[in-house]
Amino acid sequence: MSGRxxxxxxxxxxxxxxxxxxxxxxxxVRAIDRFQKGPRTDLDALAAxxxxxxxxxxxxxxxxxxxxRDERWESVFHLAAIVGVAxxxxxxxxxxxxxxxxxxxxxxxxxxxxxGSLIFSSSSENYAAGVDARQLPIPTPEAVTLSVSDVxxxxxxxxxxxxxxxxxLFSAARESSFVPIVARLHNVYGPRMPPTHVVPExxxxxxAKTDPFPVYGPEQTRSFLHVSDCANALxxxxxxxxxxxGGIYNIGSGREVRIDALARMCFDVSGHHPNxxxxxxxxxxxxxRVPDVKKLESLGWKQTITLEDGLAECWRALxxx
Length: 321
Ligand SMILES: NC(=O)c1ccc[n+]([C@@H]2O[C@H](COP(=O)([O-])OP(=O)(O)OC[C@H]3O[C@@H](n4cnc5c(N)ncnc54)[C@H](O)[C@@H]3O)[C@@H](O)[C@H]2O)c1
Hints:
The protein is of the alpha/beta class. The protein has a single domain (4-190, 225-253, 291-303), classed as 3-Layer(aba) Sandwich (Rossmann fold). The protein is 40% helix and 17% strand. The chain contains eleven helices and 13 strands. The protein has helices spanning 13-24, 41-49, 85-90, 92-112, 125-132, 156-173, 198-207, 227-240, 259-270, 294-297, 307-320; strands at residues 4-8, 28-33, 54-58, 75-78, 117-123, 179-185, 188-189, 213-216, 221-222, 225-226, 247-251, 257-258, 276-279. The protein has a seven-stranded parallel beta sheet, with helices on both faces. It has a two-stranded parallel sheet with strand order 7-10. Helix 4 (92-112) packs parallel to helix 6 (156-173), helix 7 crosses helix 9 (259-270) and helix 7 crosses helix 11 (307-320). It binds nicotinamide-adenine-dinucleotide. The site of nicotinamide-adenine-dinucleotide has 26 residues, from helix 1, strand 2, helix 4 and strand 5.
C-alpha cells in the first residue's frame, strides 16, 4: 500500500537513498533539505523520474518547522543533521544548535499531528566512549549505557546532540501516538559521499595516485555498510516495528575491518599500490567499532552488498566523474 512520507536531510547520503527507495516502492515523499552542503540536482532528477510523487522543499529545519506541519505522514524519517568529524570539531556549538533545534521542530510537528512512526537517525558515537573505556562488549548491542568522555572536547558535541535526540524522541512519543524508532547508524558509505569521510577520502587519494599513502589510525577498526543496505534497513524498521513503544536498532555491518585493511581494499579496486605512510588517529576517535545487528536481522533484514563490491562501485563512480 502506498503512503505519504516525510524525509528530512533528503539531499544527503542516507536520506537521498531512502527517498529513492520509497519512490521505487510506490510511495510519495516530501523531501526537505536546506541545501547548504550540496545542490538539489540529484533530487530534481529523481522528481523527473517519479512525476507527481516527490515534493522537494528547501527549508532550514533548525529555524522553522512550517514545512513539517500540514499533513499526517505515514512515517517521518528524520535524517537531517550536521555530520562529519572535521566539521563538528570546528563548529561544535553550531552542531548542537542545528541538530537539537531541528529535532525539536520535527518532534513538535509530530506531537501535533502524529505520523505512524518517526525514525530518528542516531549514531554509534553515542556509545563510543564506553567502548574505548572497555566497559562495553564488542560487537556492541543496543542496550548499553550512552556517554561522552569529555564535554570540553568539541568532537563530542555530535554525540551529545544524538544522545539528547534519542531521549527527546522517546519523551515526545509519550505525548503523542507515533511509534518512536531510533536507528543507530554505523559507518555508512556510498558513491554520493563527499571526501570528508574515510572511504571516499581513500579512493580520492588512490585516484590522485598519492604515494606514500597517509593512513590515519591504521590499527583502528570500523564496520562499513553500503548506503543502499542502510536505506533498506530504514524501510524494514518502518514496516516491521509496529509496537507503540518502538525501540532502538543498530544499522550496520557485523564485519570488523582494520583501517589499513580498508586501505589495501581501496588499492585493489583502484589498481594503485602505494607505500603506507601510517599516521596517528584523530584525537578522541574510537579504537574499535562493530555493531551487534542481530536485533535488526531478527526483523528479516540482511546485508546484501559486500565491502569489496561496494568499494568497487564507489571507485567506478569516482573514475567516471
Ligand atoms: N553516514 C554515516 O555513517 C552515519 C553514521 C551515524 C549516523 N548518521 C546519521 O544519519 C543521518 C544522515 O547522515 P548522512 O551521512 O546522510 O549525512 P549527510 O551530511 O550526507 O546528510 C545530511 C543532510 O541533512 C541536511 N541538513 C542538515 N541540517 C539541516 C537543517 N537544519 N535543515 C534541513 N536540512 C538539514 C544537510 O544539508 C544534508 O543534506 C544524520 O542524522 C547522521 O547523523 C550517519
